């Protein structure tokens, strides 16, 4: 990703971002709300368009106007803060919809795969339930599995634990950790500093649409170079202590 | 007492009621026929129009504009005028097949034209009420725009608009009576003929009773759906 910029009207939400995520790496984006983390992720999936720069995923320039976005999106899974499961479908239907309609799976093939994935996260018994019967943590895990069902090369996780009750966070993080261990390439926007420190190969601190500082977690969290990073981390740690 | 008896004689006299019943019932079957066919057509056409109105991009602008003109025009024109124009105007065009239909067909066409405009707006409200994050989630999985509408947005939208939609259908049922103005022998017209011939009104009351009997179940069903939804939403809030 090179020189990526994006404006919402006059607001420069992404300002010449350079970021390189090697395969099997986990990169965490940290920073205050509004710093551009979510927008950056949405750009990689082409849910948002960029005005300047270049984003290459798996050797393919995604800003190419001739690109079939639906093919790109099958390679790039994204999971949102608010889960966004389809409320009128069962868990199984949520997970199998895209593989069947866009992934070339037969119904049986998609369901077999979905049940295997649900078994892996211990929710096979909930396959025929509707999302409103599940806890937030369970819904978010289903949302992750729904994205995984398309066999993506990269997973983008956009503050996926922010809407969860604290006691439900760990079950979701456990799944993400497992994905990281299996070698999935991931970019996470997160407020969970402890988790970022544990799973990330690299941490980027975003501030006002720019990557102000990036490095291995040990360095970012213990000896940040930038004043803004220090202030941000201090505030977050303070808040965590109060919680 | 005398006045009450007059009312009874004029509107509810059982003998007249019985005499009028077969005619009115025969006419009412025409109302039911028009209603069922028009409602089926409206359900499909209005959804198509609502989807057209929501199409993204500059390429679809003429289509969107056309859909807007259509809804503005037919929501603004009284049904009785549409019925006159279609029922008397189209046969006058002498366009072969189109101009040689049974008058009931023109009645159904008028109802469909007008109510499609109303129901399009109902569907559109439903489609817009589906949160954008649902579309984002569907598109992010690689589903196309059409697939997203077909499997994610429209099913949720339709579920939400069933009560207001049924409410419009209650209106449509009653408005089948207006089609009598172009000479469809439906319940209102037959009842009125009977009333003029016999100089009393039980035939009209009889027609009214039929309409009410048809409407009440639909109205109660709508109430039930609304109550059901409120109960569900309240349950979710906790």
Strand and helix map with partners:
The complex is a heterodimer of chains A (about 240) and B (about 240).
Chain A lengths: L1 E7 L2 E7 L8 E5 L6 H8 L7 E3 L1 E2 L2 E2 L7 H7 E4 L11 H11 L5 H14 L15 H13 L5 E5 L7 H16 L3 E5 L3 H7 L2 E6 L2 E6 L1 H6 L4 H16 L1
Parallel strand pairs in A: 3-9, 3-10, 7-8, 8-9
Antiparallel strand pairs in A: 1-2, 1-4, 5-6, 10-11
Helix pairs in contact in A: 3-4, 3-5, 5-6
Chain B lengths: L1 H10 L2 H40 L7 H16 L2 H14 L10 H27 L2 H9 L4 H31 L11 H12 L3 H36 L1
Helix pairs in contact in B: 2-3, 2-5, 2-7, 2-8, 2-9, 3-5, 4-5, 5-7, 6-7, 7-9, 8-9
Strand content of chain B: under 5%
Give the fraction of residues assigned to helices of chain B. Answer: over 70%
Give the proportion of residues in helices of chain A. 40-55%
- How many beta-strand elements of chain B? 0
Task: Characterize this entry briefly.
The complex is a heterodimer of chains A (243) and B (238). With 243 residues, chain A is α/β, with parallel strands linked by helices.
Task: Write a structural description.
Chain A is of the alpha/beta class. In chain A, 40% of the residues lie in helices and 21% in strands. Chain A has helices at 37-44, 69-75, 91-101, 107-120, 136-148, 166-181, 193-199, 217-222, 227-242, and strands at 2-8, 11-17, 26-30, 52-54, 56-57, 60-61, 76-79, 154-158, 185-189, 202-207, 210-215. In chain A, the strands form three sheets. A six-stranded mixed β-sheet of chain A has the order 7-8-9-3-10-11, sandwiched between helices. Chain A has a three-stranded antiparallel β-sheet with strand order 2-1-4, with no helix packed on it. A two-stranded antiparallel sheet of chain A has the order 5-6. In chain A, a hairpin with a 2-residue loop joins strand 10 (202-207) and strand 11 (210-215). In chain A, helix 5 runs parallel beside helix 6 (166-181). The longest helix of chain A is centred in the last third of the chain and has 16 residues, at 166-181. The radius of gyration of chain A is 18 Å and the shape is globular. Chain B is mostly helical. Helices cover 82% and strands 0% of the residues of chain B. Chain B contains nine helices and no strands. Chain B has helices at residues 2-11, 14-53, 61-76, 79-92, 103-129, 132-140, 145-175, 187-198, 202-237. In chain B, helix 2 (14-53) packs across helix 9, helix 4 crosses helix 5 (103-129) and helix 8 (187-198) runs antiparallel to helix 9 (202-237). The radius of gyration of chain B is 22 Å and the shape is flat. The A-B interface holds A 42, 45, 47, 70-71, 73-74, 77-78, 80, 82, 84-88, 97-98, 101-103, 132, 143, 146-147, 150 and B 133-134, 136-144, 147, 151-152, 155-156, 159, 236.
